Amino acid sequence: MNGADERATQSRRVRFDSAHKWAATLAAVVALALSIYNFAELQKKPRIDVALPHLLRAGPVGEGTAFQIQPTVSSRFKAQDVEVIRDARLRLTPVGSISSSAKPVFYWHETGTYVYDFASDLVNYNWTGDPAPFVVSQDKPQQPTLVFWADGWTFRPGRYEGSLRLTRSGNRSPLIEKFCLIVSKRAADEIRGAAERRIFFFRDDLPKFRLSGDSPDCYRRETD
Length: 224
What we know:
Blueprint: H1 3-43, E1 48-51, E2 55-61, E3 64-69, E4 72-75, E5 83-95, E6 107-117, E7 122-129, E8 134-136, E9 145-150, E10 158-168, E11 175-183, H2 185-192, E12 200-203, H3 207-210, E13 220-221
Antiparallel strand pairs: 1-4, 2-3, 2-12, 3-9, 5-8, 5-10, 6-7, 6-9, 10-11, 12-13
């Protein structure tokens, strides 16, 4: 091998070593950037989503009305901290033709769950806890059945504007989901004349109402 070949080989080796060092440096910088990004993401407060179910339950209790709602509370992003839901509030406001009627004052009475019983082919309600804070994280979504009571109040036929308000820890802004409810005269009469703790279903996904064009997104009795 002559001197020219040796110099060419040496030059190629220098270029290769230089490129290798730059590639290794770039890979280290990228890895560091990803580590910093992941660390920053983990330090962020969890981002919580709330979705209302397609079914609400209501019925008489004592001299008043019980209202049950099972939201899905979840986080789609991983975070080091968890979210604590400290309180839940339900509001139901009569509007339109019944706007002057009494407005119910609901309070969070308890939390429960529904369990299917194979022997009786019935879905039974079970108490699971007092009204208390609950934790939400990416690997621990929550679907509690929140039970609210309004003493000395019952439904009148008409439209209601409702909202579920979940108060979060750390003075963060509350999570609020709104909905509308239409109670027919038939449904109101059924609830007023029903036995203690009987439950009536209201849905917002029934095809016959979605196709009607009349407030298709509101919850209504299945039998209306």
